[in-house]
Design goal:
This is tRNA pseudouridine synthase A, mitochondrial. Strands 1, 2, 3, 4, 5, 6, 7, 8, 9 and 10 form a ten-stranded mixed beta sheet that branches. The chain is of the alpha+beta class. It has twelve helices and ten strands.
Length: about 575
């Protein structure tokens, strides 16, 4: 009887099918449109591939702790990553893991700093068409994506960006030495003939003043305490749609007091006079705030008596104006606020020339260790190259004139631009000498430099000149040129009103100006201290040299000992040595 044949062995397990894509996550991604449908009757959906793209966007930094993602803080990058996932551009496996899709940013803005043209890059699912619309639907209104550009696989928004342009909108009054003085300066000016006035407005904003305003920190929002308090000319707060009073924003560019498109000079009625300009670039019209040292113009045919009467009248008017400013009450009897009086100071050609001269100290390659934090002078990263730095135009936003400070450089460190603006303002306000720039870039000198408020700073453009030139034949240029109109609309709707509103309601720059004094920044006197030490050293050296010369002269003047002719010297017996 034949033996029974053994049962057939089970078939060997099939090897798992290898992905044909260079990106295995693209084939196995359940959230992206896939060809594997659960229902055989359903038509096969198209399979999309990841694309390396550069996304161009803008954002208003209000309410965010900067661009870079930071655990526990609300950041632009955190919201953008989540929006990319919700829009289907990032798979579930890569959620909250930006390194897995080659995430990179062109610039890392600080807390509260805005950007009109930021660029980020990565590998995303951008198909089907309508990716930007899907992304914007997941973003807050103050973050807008303009478009995207296909780039090479090796592209990195951080590494390939060779220039970055920032703008800082600085209120014109910040350059006026008599505007918003600190308490020490007010006390020191008493009895000098050009007294400074106490800034009551900033006293209200900075701390609670009992019996004056009854509030602390900042102005109340409309509708607070049952009263609708509003300041004339302020920018409205955020509405439900996210717009910030765009109708009141007037980003009209003026030129140092020339007529703008609305036919206004940007000056108050008493500023329209052709006032003489003092040596430091400030107009002599500041005499209305308490300075009585302005030369009075007397007609050639008038007598001495008429001139004397004119002087007395001018002094009385100046005194009345000073009393009015010092006794100004910013709250009317019915609870409404009075708008602050406008200074006679303006951005004249003389002020512009001085400010631009100061800003040019930053141009070139320097060691900026004094203009950042956490970077030592010996660190090679402290060396940065500034291509240009100028402030040639004035923009008017909601009744406030701002100087448009434009800086172009390869890259910037933490707080670098704000510190450069801070020291320049301190020099313009005579808080620090202009000669401080002779030592501010030295490795062996450490200075405490003031940091200007972040609200006026925004990233205006990121440039990829070398990349665009190299790949111009095969790839579209990474540029903001196709989206210039959208970027301008975004600035007018969100960035500009935010800057004006912060100055109107909280006095961001005005309060900061009160801190520019020698008590907070003793290094403002560095040149005087260093000069005194050098003088003391020189005096010590000269006195020592003088003493040596005197001793030498006395030695030379000692009479020579007369030796007898027989060469015998009589020596006392008690002085003889053994």
């Amino acid at each position: 009887m034949a033996a029974a044949s053994p049962p057939p062995s089970p078939p060997a397990a099939k090897r798992p099918k290898m992905s044909s894509s260079s990106d295995p996550e693209a084939d196995a991604e359940p959230t992206s449109p896939s060809a594997a449908g659960d229902d055989p009757g359903q038509p096969r959906r198209p399979r999309y591939k990841r694309r390396k793209v550069a996304i161009l966007l803008g954002y208003c930094g209000a309410g965010y702790q900067g661009m870079q993602k930071n655990p526990g803080a609300r950041t632009i990058e955190g919201d953008l990553e989540e929006a990319l996932y919700q829009a289907g551009a990032v798979p579930e496996a890569d959620r909250a893991a930006p390194r897995r899709y080659d995430w990179a940013r062109a610039a890392r803005t600080d807390k509260g700093v805005s950007a009109a043209a930021q660029v980020v890059s990565g590998r995303f699912y951008v198909d089907p068409p309508g990716f930007i619309d899907r992304l914007n639907a997941q973003l807050a209104p103050q973050i807008r994506a303009y478009g995207y550009v296909r780039v090479t696989n090796s592209f990195s928004a951080k590494k390939f960006c060779d220039r970055r342009r920032y703008l800082y909108l600085l209120p014109v009054f910040a350059l006026d030495p008599s505007a918003h003085p600190d308490r020490e300066a007010v006390m020191a000016s008493m009895g000098s003939g050009s007294e400074l006035t106490k800034c009551l407005e900033c006293s209200e904003r900075g701390r609670k003043v009992p019996g004056v305003m009854g509030r602390e920190g900042k102005l109340p929002s409309p509708g607070e305490n049952g009263a609708d308090v509003a300041m004339d000319g302020t920018v409205d707060s955020h509405d439900e749609s996210g717009s910030i009073g765009a109708a009141k924003c007037d980003p009209t560019i003026t030129d140092g007091g020339k007529t703008n498109s609305h036919g206004e000079l940007g000056l108050s009625s008493n500023e329209k006079l052709d006032l003489p300009v003092s040596g430091d670039g400030t107009e002599a019209g500041n005499a209305e705030l308490g300075s009585n040292d302005v030369d009075d113009v007397v007609p050639s045919g008038s007598s001495d008596g008429d001139a004397s009467i004119g002087n007395e009248v001018n002094k009385l008017e100046a005194a009345a104006t000073e009393d009015k400013v010092q006794g100004m009450d910013f709250e009317m009897s019915n609870g409404e606020e009075k708008p602050p009086t406008k200074s006679a100071f303006s951005y004249t050609e003389k002020v512009k020339e001085k400010f631009n001269r100061i800003l040019k100290y930053y141009v070139g390659t320097h060691n900026f260790h004094n203009f950042t934090t956490r970077t030592k002078a010996e660190d090679p990263a402290a060396k940065r190259f500034i291509i240009s730095f100028a402030a040639d135009r004035v923009v008017s936003l909601d009744g406030i004139d701002f100087v448009r400070c434009e800086v172009l450089g390869q890259s910037f460190m933490l707080h670098q631009i704000r510190k450069m603006i801070g020291l320049a303002v301190a020099v313009m306000r005579n808080c620090a000498p202009e000669s401080i720039y002779d030592v501010s870039f030295r490795k062996d000198v450490n200075l405490n430099v003031p940091t200007a408020p972040e609200v006026g700073l925004y990233l205006d453009e990121c440039m990829f000149t070398s990349y665009n030139k190299k790949w111009k034949d095969s790839h579209e240029a990474v540029s903001m040129e196709p989206y210039c109109e959208e970027a301008e609309e975004f600035k007018v709707k969100y960035i500009f009103p935010h800057i004006a509103a912060m100055e109107h309601k909280e006095g961001a720059v005005a309060l900061w100006l009160h801190s520019l004094n020698h008590r907070n920044y003793p290094d403002f006197c560095y040149m005087e201290t260093a000069g005194a030490e050098a003088k003391v050293g020189a005096d010590v050296e000269s006195s020592a040299a003088g003493a040596e010369a005197k001793i030498g002269a006395e030695v030379e003047n000692i009479e020579e000992v007369q030796i007898p002719s027989n060469n015998e010297v009589q020596i006392p017996s008690d002085n003889v040595s053994e």
